[in-house]
């Protein structure tokens, strides 16, 4: 963070604080090594939670995209999650409408279900509703998207 003169005292404070804890979780092995070199103790790597083998854009299926009405060159936007008011899905629809104004062949895919499904279908009749998915099927749906939209202001 380019803290200049403050780097050493701040690092000392952070080291003292963290070394009093039972464990400090870090996102990568590289971060664990860096902090260990700086005197941090009881470090554990907790991955970011995404299986990069399963959720790989290379697994994109043109057949799935075709089932959504999209050609290989069409832009496909998508939302994955519960279809509920707190997810701020009006912003997702507004983004889709803005894109569609300049790319008329753009497609919108909703993966998930919830109480707003009927309202969303009425507001975006050309949208695809893929329903709830999991595992490799969910990964394939993500891979088929060109742009993932997430508008929720809170995580529920």
From TrEMBL:
- Identify a single GO molecular function assigned to this protein: glycosyltransferase activity
The record's annotation in Pfam families points to: Glyco_trans_1_4
Among PANTHER family, the record links this protein to: SULFOQUINOVOSYL TRANSFERASE SQD2 (PTHR45947)
The name on file for this protein is Glycosyl transferase family 1 domain-containing protein
Annotated source species: Hemiselmis andersenii
């Amino acid at each position: 963070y380019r803290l200049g003169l403050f780097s050493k005292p701040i690092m000392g404070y952070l080291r003292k604080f963290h070394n009093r804890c039972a464990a400090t979780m870090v996102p990568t092995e590289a971060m664990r090594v860096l902090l260990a070199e700086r005197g941090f103790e009881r470090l554990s790597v907790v991955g970011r939670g995404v299986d990069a083998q399963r959720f790989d854009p290379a697994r994109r299926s043109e057949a799935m995209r075709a089932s959504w009405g999209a050609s290989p060159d069409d832009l496909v936007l998508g939302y994955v999650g519960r279809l509920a008011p707190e997810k701020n899905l009006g912003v997702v629809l507004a983004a889709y409408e803005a894109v569609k104004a300049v790319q008329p062949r753009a497609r919108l895919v909703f993966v998930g279900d919830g109480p707003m499904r009927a309202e969303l279908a009425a507001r975006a009749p050309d949208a695809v509703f893929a329903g709830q998915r999991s595992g490799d099927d969910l990964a394939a749906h993500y891979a088929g998207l060109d742009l993932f939209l997430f508008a929720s202001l809170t995580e529920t």
